[in-house]
């Protein structure tokens, strides 16, 4: 990375110094001075370049981290995220505040992921198809372990979204998946063996359609899977002490290990 010039910045009274740090990094990105995967200057250097305290730099970096723009790596500094990812906290916060329902989440997933599956059938690379095959195999192996099953389930959907070849769709699916995971892991242990067997089969059908480059079949299989999964999750939630899926008020999840 070239040493960034100090960008022209708005008068200090308008923004807090945290916002100045965010604006500074945005400016570096806009001017092409940093790219995905690049390391940012140290806190000390940033403080000097921006003209704010190191505490402000840290606050600004925390804000950028919450947006998914940067990542800290222990011992090696702060980097611009190399893959687009919206941090899930903001959506999770909104979900808690406005009481997103399970039905709304599945509806959002259908809108995004049915289209993604169709595109994946057209565009998936051999590597992505091989990764999907691995995830399907893992789903069948993890039938007795609902939480690990859930991890492979989420990974499968992430690969499909990535294979759509559209990073905007990939990012949105990732964000909604994180929210989904957060909720689903509270109920996943209630999943019956039959549900998990059906789910594993559904993923295999999606995979086979993508491998066959059959976009219609991939969309249909993804649609059917998400409709079925929504129905199963509603049953799981009904057997968990706190009713989770239909609440309109903020969630206070039962503490369960995940
Ligand atoms: Zn799934």
Folded structure, characterized:
The protein has about 260 residues and is mostly helical. The chain folds into two domains: about 20-80, Orthogonal Bundle (Arc Repressor Mutant, subunit A), CATH 1.10.10; about 90-240, GntR ligand-binding domain-like (Four Helix Bundle (Hemerythrin (Met), subunit A), Up-down Bundle). The chain has ten helices and two strands, in the order H-H-H-E-E-H-H-H-H-H-H-H. The protein has helices at about 15-30, 45-50, 55-65, 90-100, 100-125, 125-140, 145-165, 165-185, 195-210, 215-240; strands at about 70-75, 75-80. It has a two-stranded antiparallel ribbon with strand order 1-2. A hairpin with a 3-residue loop joins strand 1 and strand 2 (about 75-80). Helix 1 packs across helix 3 (about 55-65), helix 5 packs across helix 7 (about 145-165) and helix 9 packs antiparallel against helix 10. The two termini are about 40 Å apart. The relative contact order is 0.11. Residues about 10-15 and about 245-258 have low confidence and may be disordered. The structure holds zinc ion (ZN).
Write a brief structural summary.
By secondary structure, this protein is mainly α. Helix content is 64%, strand content 3%.
**Which molecules are bound besides the chains?**
zinc ion
Helix content: 55-70%
CATH-level-2 architecture of the largest domain: Up-down Bundle
- How widely separated are the two ends? 40 Å
The overall average pLDDT, rounded, is 83
Count the domains: 2
Q: How would the global form be characterised?
A: elongated
Rg, rounded, reads 21 Å
**Largest sheet entry:** 2 strands, antiparallel
CATH superfamily of the largest domain: GntR ligand-binding domain-like
CATH topology of the largest domain: Four Helix Bundle (Hemerythrin (Met), subunit A)
Number of helices, where a helix is a run of at least 4 consecutive DSSP H or I residues: 10
Oligomer: single chain
Order of helices and strands: HHHEEHHHHHHH
Question: What portion of the residues fall into strands of 2 or more residues?
Answer: under 5%
CATH class of the largest domain: Mainly Alpha
The tally of beta strands, per DSSP, is 2
- Uncertain regions spanning at least 5 consecutive residues: 8-14, 243-258
Tell me the structural class: mainly alpha
């Amino acid at each position: 990375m070239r040493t960034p010039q100090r960008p022209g910045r708005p008068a200090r009274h308008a923004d807090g110094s945290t916002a100045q740090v965010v604006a500074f990094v945005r400016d570096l990105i806009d001017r092409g001075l940093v790219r995905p995967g690049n390391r940012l200057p140290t806190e000390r250097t940033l403080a000097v370049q921006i003209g704010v305290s190191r505490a402000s730099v840290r606050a600004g970096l925390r804000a950028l981290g919450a947006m998914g723009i940067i990542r800290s790596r222990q011992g090696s500094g702060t980097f611009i995220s190399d893959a687009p990812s919206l941090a899930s906290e903001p959506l999770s916060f909104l979900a808690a505040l406005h009481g997103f329902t399970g039905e709304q989440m599945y509806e959002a997933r259908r809108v995004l992921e049915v289209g993604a599956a169709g595109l994946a059938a057209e565009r998936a690379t051999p590597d992505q198809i091989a990764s999907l095959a691995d995830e399907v195999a893992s789903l069948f192996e993890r039938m007795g372990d609902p939480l690990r099953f859930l991890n492979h389930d989420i990974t499968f959907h992430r690969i499909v979204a990535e294979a759509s070849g559209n990073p905007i769709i990939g990012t949105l699916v990732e964000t909604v998946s994180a929210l989904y995971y957060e909720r689903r892991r509270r109920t996943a242990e209630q999943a019956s063996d039959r549900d998990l067997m059906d789910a594993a089969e559904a993923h295999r059908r999606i995979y086979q359609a993508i491998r066959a480059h059959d976009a219609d079949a991939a969309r249909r299989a993804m649609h059917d899977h998400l409709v079925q999964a929504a129905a199963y999750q509603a049953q799981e939630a009904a057997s968990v002490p706190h009713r989770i899926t239909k609440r309109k008020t903020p969630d206070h999840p039962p503490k369960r290990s995940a």
